[in-house]
Amino acid sequence: MTMVKTIEPAAEVLLKKAAQDNVETVFDRYEAQQPQCGFGSLGICCRHCIQGPCRIDPFGNGPRAGICGATAEVIVTRNLLRQVAAGTAAHVDHAYEAVEALELAAEGKIDYEIADEKKLLAIAQTLGLETDGKDKKELAMAVVEAAYQDFGNHTGKPIRWLTANVPQERLAVWESLGILPRNPDREIREALHQTTMGMDADPVNLVLATAKQGLVDGYSGLILGTDIQDILFGTPMPVVTEANLGVLQKDKVNIIVHGHVPLLSEKIVYWARELEDEAKAQGSQGIQVAGICCTGNEVLMRQGVPLATNYLAQELAIVTGAVDVMVVDVQCIMPSLARVAACYHTELITTSPIVKIPGATHVSFSLENADEAAREIVRKAIANFAKRDENKVQIPDYKAKVVAGFSVEAIVEALAKLNGEDPLKPLVDNIANGNIVGVVATVGCNNAKIT
Ligand code: SF4
């Protein structure tokens, strides 16, 4: 059965172009993978030791346990825990890098500002740190040390970023379940140990360990990373901008920032503004930066940079033929981008030592050389503009106005207009009286399985 690939009009236009240009996309590869492995889909295949791979017969006619005796329940929950631990590692690694950046910024060793002193103070107070008489650099160092203490916590006590941020009732529930994390790196290591051959065979214990990874992900990854990045780059406030592939400009140098971390993309935005005249001198009308995935959202909500598209259409951005450089940092970067870029004039640039793609240019990015790297990348885009083949350019005429930047602080600030003393009260009251049924966070991205 052929699935509907997308209902998004810009993507529809570009999928037709991709077919004409003989470019393979994620949707083609998804179809080529059908039917996907039933054992893998059910999670009942195990490769955790070299006696395997082992698989369980879901119909009950074949093997009911792996060679070691692991049942379907054990194999499924072990696989889930490993999967969640891997995602947790990605978020925690991201947050750790942000902490390093704040440390170097506070020491004056890198060219990043501490943009949000209000948030810095609020976090220091939440953590219970001494704030009196400290200037912003000293306060930032105190926050950095608190973060590093979590990473090097050998006391057996729970992560401070968690205990400082959650209500006592929630803490008590997690404690009663034995899932309070002690140290993010230790918990991720323990999850790998726990799921190794001959280890945990209790599915309930494995599910609880997975919930513990969720707490690590939340408090040593997402919240820690957000806190530190807000201190460095500013807490987002509502901003009006545009989204969809129509934000690319026919007459401008188009640079796409793609990945997850704002450390590089903030610098690209800065240097794109600085080098606007250079771009004009080379025959363009200027420089357009647009984002994909989270790194795009970081500069969307803080700088109002338009969002080009999402994970699933990243290849299609290049298929427009109008992207002069796509620069990527970490996570959600399709390895296929290099092959797609090779069909056009687009230069794909990797920047992280742990994300290299054959066929891409690698410009090594570090906190210390951030400005040099960003300037080099913007100049590569300016130079590449001249190589654009106008016959291959097709920018779909689809874009929409978006309002982004709804940080917790922005929401509380808006609610404070209703009740300055207790801003959350109107929200809580309306949940209590049933006018608001509930509050939902929709988190994540699209994938080829679901139209
Ligand atoms: S751990 Fe057990 S189920 Fe997994 S591959 Fe080894 S023997 Fe098979």
Pattern of helices and strands: HHHEEHHHHHHHEEHHEHEHEHEEHEHH
Judged by helices, strands and strand pairing, the structural class is alpha/beta
CATH class of the largest domain: Alpha Beta
- How many helices does DSSP assign? 18
Largest sheet: 6 strands, parallel
The unique ligands bound to this protein are: iron/sulfur cluster
Name the beta content range: 5-15%
What is the number of strand segments? 10
- The neighbouring-strand order within the major sheet is 6-5-4-7-8-9
Mean pLDDT: 96
The residue fraction in helices comes out at 40-55%
Based on CA inertia axes, which overall geometry fits? Answer: globular
Output the radius of gyration.
24 Å
Note the gap between the termini. 14 Å
CATH architecture classification of the largest domain: 3-Layer(aba) Sandwich
Number of domains: 3
Verbal overview:
The protein is α/β, with parallel strands linked by helices and 451 residues long. It is 47% helix and 9% strand. The relative contact order is 0.12. Strand 7 (325-328), helix 15 and strand 8 (347-350) form a beta-alpha-beta unit. The strands form three sheets. The protein has a six-stranded parallel β-sheet with strand order 6-5-4-7-8-9. It has three domains: 9-55, no CATH class; 72-233, Substrate Binding Domain Of Dnak, Chain:A, Domain 2, CATH 1.20.1270.30; 239-401, Rossmann fold. It has helices at 9-20, 26-32, 38-42, 72-106, 117-126, 136-151, 160-163, 168-176, 184-194, 203-233, 262-274, 276-281, 293-303, 314-319, 337-341, 370-385, 408-415, 425-432; strands spanning 45-46, 54-55, 239-243, 253-258, 287-292, 307-309, 325-328, 347-350, 361-362, 400-404. The structure holds iron/sulfur cluster. The site of iron/sulfur cluster has 13 residues, from loops.
